[in-house]
Amino acid sequence: MASVDVALATISFKRKIAYKTTWLFSILFGGWSLLAGLAVWSHLIGDGELGGYDWPAMKAYLIIGFLTSTLAWAGADWEMANRILDGLIAVDLTKPIDFQRARAAEYIGGMTASVPAAILGTVAAVLIFQPAAPASPLAAALTVLSLLFIFPLAFGVNYLATMACFVTQRYLGIQWARDCFLAFFSGMMVPLALMPGWLQGIAWGLPFVHFTTTPASIYLGRVDALGALGLIAAEAAWALGLWFGTRLVWNRLVKKVTVHGG
Questions:
Q1: CB-side exposure of 230: number of CA atoms within 13 Å?
Q2: What whole-number distance in Å separates Cα of residue 89 and Cα of residue 259?
Q3: Angle, CA 253 vertex, CA 251 and CA 254 arms, to 5°
Q4: How far apart are CA 206 and CA 195, in angstroms?
C-alpha cells in the first residue's frame, strides 16, 4: 500500500504545481495578509508590548502564522469534497483502496507542493523584518517538530469538514466556517493572550490552536521544554483522534451515499 500512497501523493503534488498561477496567487495572498498584519500590530504595540509580545516577538508570531496558514490551506480539500458531491465516491467504494488513506496521501501531496514557496516566503520575511530569534536552539528544533504535525492535523480537520457533504450536499459554506474557526481559534487573527480567559479555555480545547499558537509559543519560549513536549503530544493526540474519529463518522455517513442519475 505504501507504493499506492506515494503514487497518489505524487499525482496530487503534480496537479497542484501544474496550475502555477493559482499556486503563486495563494502564496502572494498570504504575503499580503502578513504585510497587513505587520502594519496593524506595529501601530498597536509601538515601543511597548501587548499580551506579553513586544514588537520583535510579534513579528516572529506573525511570520510563523504566515507559514502555518500557508501549509494549512494548501491541501486538496475541494478534491475530497467533490468526490462526495459528484458521486465519484461510488466508484471509490468499489476499489481495493482505503478511501481515507487515499485521500490522506493526496492531501499531504497537495500540502507538500506549498512547502518550497512557504519556506522561501518565510525566509524572505525573516530577512526583511528581522523578527525575534528562537528562545534557544532546543526551542527552534521543537518548533520544527510541531510544524511537522500540521500535516496530519490539517488533513484530519479538513477531512472531517468534507464528511459534512454527505448531509449538506454543499461544501462552500462548510469551507468558510472551517476557515473562520481556524483563523480565530488558532490565534492567526488575534493572539490567544489577548482573549478573555474563558475564550482561551475554549480555544485550548480545540485542535485549531496548534496551527499557530503552539509553534509560536514554543519558538518564543513562552513554554519551557517540558511544556513544549506537552503541546506537541497534544498535537499528536489530536491527529490520531481525528484520524480514528473521522473513520467512525465515515462508517455512518457512507450509508447516505446517493448518486444522481442512477
A1: 7
A2: 9
A3: 70
A4: 15
The predicted pLDDT at position 16 comes to 64
**Nearest CA-CA partner of 208 in 177, 185, 241:** 185
As a three-state string, the secondary structure of the chain is: CHHHHHHHHHHHHHHHHHCHHHHHHHHHHHHHHHHHHHHHHHHHHCCCEECCEEHHHHHHHHHHHHHHHHHHCCCCHHHHHHHHHCCCHHHHCCCCCCHHHHHHHHHHHHHHHHHHHHHHHHHHHHHHHCCCCCCCHHHHHHHHHHHHCHHHHHHHHHHHHHHCHHHHCCCHHHHHHHHHHHHHHCCCCCCHHHCCHHHHHHHHCCHHHHHCHHHHHHHCCCCCHHHHHHHHHHHHHHHHHHHHHHHHHHHHHHHHCCCCCC
Domain boundaries, the chain: 2-256
What is the CA angle 114-180-39, rounded to 5? 70
What pLDDT digit, counting tens, does each position of 95-137 carry? 777 888 888 888 888 778 778 778 888 888 888 889 999 999 9
Is the distance from CB of 159 to CB of 100 less than 8 angstroms? yes
261: left (phi over 0), alpha (psi -120 to 50) or beta: left
How many Å apart are CA 93 and CA 188, to the nearest integer?
37
Residue 23 near residue 17, CB atoms below 8 Å: yes
